[in-house]
Structure to design on (59 residues):
C-alpha cells in the first residue's frame, strides 16, 4: 500500500512510500533519515526538529 508521510508543520507530504502494513513511527523516521542521507533516525530528528509525523494511506 502507498502511504504519505505527513506533518502538521508542512503543506505537502514529506514523501510517499510503500509499506505492506501501516508503518510504525520508527519505520517512518528510518525512511526519512535514509532519504535525507542521515546515519539514523535520531540524527534526522535532531536536524529537522519536527516532533510530529504521521501517515495517511493514499487511495
Amino acid at each position: 500500500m502507498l502511504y504519505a508521510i505527513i506533518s502538521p508543520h508542512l503543506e505537502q507530504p514529506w514523501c510517499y512510500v510503500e509499506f505492506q502494513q501501516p508503518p510504525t513511527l520508527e519505520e517512518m523516521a528510518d525512511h526519512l533519515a535514509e532519504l535525507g542521507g542521515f546515519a539514523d533516525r535520531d540524527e534526522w530528528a535532531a536536524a529537522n526538529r519536527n516532533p510530529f509525523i504521521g501517515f495517511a494511506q493514499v487511495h
Summary: The mean pLDDT is 88.
